[in-house]
């Protein structure tokens, strides 16, 4: 989930990552550019897709790889090769599982389940929705009031897609990342799909301007 939060990936894309997914390329102007390499199939299929990530994501990749290599001991003998790439987020397999399920791997990347199973991960006070939070959230999603379990004084319901959406909106808001780059990072087939996320930022900007006026 740490990798997912910083990569702007869909959950299924993070589930496709292998233990050899970490890559760093040297750019003459930018220096070292860290990436994770995997597969995307939803809108713009690519078996060798790349997502630019902060360098500190490497720690999470290395930790997940270490755990996967430990779980590798339960695989059939022919899959014990330490040089054999394996799914980065291998589910907790037992000794009699015939294969590794990618579907099962994807379900382990559920943020709500993570928070539920690890109640001390966040300070409860930090994820309680304030009146200011609610005002901002409604500017982005006017029909938020119709969603059960959402409101002032309640804990915010986190989902993996919110990492992707928030990162995209912040990129639009920064005015330092081009629309083409955001489209490439989000693996969208056309520009209109990417601008959908940009419109959410536009709503906040427009509502704030209208309120000031």
What is the radius of gyration computed over CA atoms, rounded to a whole number of angstroms?
20 Å
Round the mean pLDDT to the nearest integer and report it.
83
Runs in which pLDDT lies below 50 for 5 or more consecutive residues are none
Report the end-to-end length measured between terminal Cα atoms: 41 Å
Helix content estimate? 40-55%
Work out the strand percent: 5-15%
Oligomer: single chain
Number of helices: 9
Could you outline the blueprint of secondary structure elements for this entry?
Layout: H1 2-7, H2 11-15, E1 22-27, E2 31-40, E3 46-52, H3 57-71, H4 102-107, H5 111-117, H6 131-140, H7 160-174, H8 179-186, H9 191-212
Antiparallel strand pairs: 1-2, 2-3
Salient structural properties:
single chain; mainly alpha; 213 residues
Question: How would you describe the overall organization of this protein?
Answer:
The protein has 213 residues and is mostly helical. It is 44% helix and 11% strand. It has 9 helices and 3 strands; from the N terminus they run ααβββααααααα. It has helices at residues 2-7, 11-15, 57-71, 102-107, 111-117, 131-140, 160-174, 179-186, 191-212, and strands at residues 22-27, 31-40, 46-52. A 3-stranded antiparallel β-sheet has the order 1-2-3. A hairpin with a 3-residue loop joins strand 1 and strand 2 (31-40). Helix 7 packs across helix 9 and helix 8 (179-186) crosses helix 9 (191-212). It is globular. The model has no long low-confidence stretch (mean pLDDT 83).
């Amino acid at each position: 989930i740490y990798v997912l939060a910083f990569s702007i990936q869909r959950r299924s894309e993070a589930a496709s990552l292998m233990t050899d997914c970490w890559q760093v390329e040297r750019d003459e102007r930018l220096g070292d550019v860290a990436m994770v390499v995997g597969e995307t199939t939803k809108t713009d299929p690519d078996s060798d897709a790349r997502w630019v990530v902060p360098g500190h994501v490497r720690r999470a990749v290395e930790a997940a790889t270490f755990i996967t290599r430990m779980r590798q001991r339960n695989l059939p003998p022919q899959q014990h090769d330490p040089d054999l790439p394996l799914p980065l987020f291998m589910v907790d397999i037992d000794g009699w599982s015939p294969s590794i399920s990618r579907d099962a791997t994807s379900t382990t990347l559920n943020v709500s389940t993570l928070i539920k199973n690890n109640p001390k991960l966040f300070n409860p006070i930090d994820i309680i929705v304030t009146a200011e939070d609610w005002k901002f959230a409604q500017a982005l999603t006017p029909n938020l009031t119709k969603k059960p379990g959402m409101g002032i004084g309640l804990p915010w319901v986190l989902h993996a897609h919110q990492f992707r959406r928030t990162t995209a909106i912040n990129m639009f808001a920064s005015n330092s990342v081009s629309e083409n780059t955001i489209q490439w990072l989000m693996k969208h087939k056309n520009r209109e799909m990417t601008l959908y996320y940009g419109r959410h930022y536009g709503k906040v900007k427009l509502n704030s301007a209208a309120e000031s006026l």
